[in-house]
Design brief:
Layout lengths: L1 E7 L6 E6 L5 E7 L3 H5 L5 E6 L2 H6 L8 E6 L2 E6 L4 E17 L2 E17 L15 H15 L5 H21 L2 H11 L5
Antiparallel strand pairs: 1-2, 1-4, 2-3, 3-8, 4-7, 5-6, 7-8
Helix pairs in contact: 3-4, 3-5
The structure holds flavin mononucleotide.
């Protein structure tokens, strides 16, 4: 399953990043060439995955003007997001580069295999594990599908076509980032509409 974190490291830079994990111990992160985060992590093996609210995740793509706190690891300073609920400190075990073609030409992806080395609860008001879970896009997309589904028979044919396009788009994302449980519910919708 893929979770959305705010990634920080040894520079005052924050970026929303998706990390795949099935056990919250091992993570796969794919970074697309062209961002400061990509450059920073070419030579940096310690990454902080900040579990943040959707508001902070969204803000973090706009700029790096966040509230940062410092921590020391192996004699080096790293930054994390002050408003994070929890941080997972992960170490890069393996770094691979591959290229792919898109509409703009050739581009590079850096694939990072990471392992958790430490974690810290920042928001100590949140004591339960489910309050400290990172954001998953499939949750909100599944609810969006439910909203569209509830309205589909109340709208014109043209509107219905547009709604079906959105449902298909959301379903494709859920397939990439969701869990088995998300897929079970998605398949229930499939019994009623042509996704
Ligand atoms: C929710 C979300 C998830 C993202 N996931 C990734 C990702 O997995 N890999 C990536 O390269 N970029 C991802 N991005 C885009 C980066 O966040 C973006 O390139 C970065 O913030 C640019 O800022 P920087 O130049 O300071 O690194 C994501 C953006 C959002 C909003």
């Amino acid at each position: 399953m893929k979770y959305e974190y705010v990634l920080t490291s040894s520079l005052l830079n924050r970026a929303p990043i998706g990390a795949k994990t099935s056990d919250f111990k091992n993570y796969i992160i794919n970074l697309f060439e062209g961002s400061h985060t990509y450059e920073m992590l070419k030579n940096e093996d310690i990454i902080i995955l900040n579990v943040c609210s959707p508001l902070i995740i969204a803000e973090s793509v706009i700029d790096d003007v966040g509230n940062y706190e410092k921590l020391e690891y192996n004699g080096k300073t790293y930054y994390y997001i002050k408003e994070a609920e929890k941080i997972d400190i992960v170490k890069v075990k393996n770094r691979k580069f591959s290229s792919f073609k898109n509409e703009y030409g050739n581009s590079c992806i850096m694939n990072l295999e990471c392992e958790k080395i430490d974690e810290k609860i920042i928001d100590t008001n949140k004591k339960y594990q489910n309050e400290l879970k990172p954001f998953n896009r499939a949750d909100s997309l599944l609810v969006e599908i439910a909203v569209l589904y509830s309205r589909i028979n109340l709208v014109s044919e043209t509107e219905k076509i547009k709604m079906m396009e959105k449902i298909k788009e959301y379903a494709n994302i859920i397939k990439k980032v969701g869990s088995k449980e998300h897929m079970i519910v998605l398949n229930k919708f499939k019994e009623h509409i042509d996704i």
